[in-house]
Automatic annotation (TrEMBL):
Name of the protein: PLDc N-terminal domain-containing protein
Organism: Nonomuraea guangzhouensis
Transmembrane segments: 35-54
Domain of life: Bacteria
Cardiolipin synthase N-terminal domain location: 12-57
Length: 101
């Protein structure tokens, strides 16, 4: 039973890798031409799929890390949540005490 599950998992991984190679646009494939990737994944299923995932798939565009503000400068942005807004917290405290003034 365990062998069947492992076999099905390997088959699923191989099919996923093969379809991923086939559907990836030619200009986004890395390192070797797309037809060669198809051959590698088809002829060497497990290793070919792993190598495709690591070395052939297109890399997602990475966003630049935000630059932290310099010490002493004030950031002009809205609070991230109500619990970060001192004015909201004062108003909440006033309302909880029953001071609706």
């Amino acid at each position: 039973m365990v062998g069947v599950v492992i076999g099905l998992a390997l088959l699923a991984f191989w099919l996923y890798s093969l379809f991923d190679v086939i559907t990836t646009p030619e200009e986004e494939v890395r390192n070797v031409p797309k037809p060669l990737w198809v051959l590698v994944v088809t002829l060497v299923p497990l290793v070919g799929g792993i190598v495709w995932m690591l070395r052939g798939r297109p890399q997602p565009d990475r966003e630049a890390w935000p630059v932290p503000p310099q010490p002493g400068t004030r950031r002009h942005s809205a609070p991230k949540g109500p619990d970060d807004d001192p004015e909201f917290l004062r108003d909440l405290d006033r309302r909880m005490r029953g001071e609706d003034g």
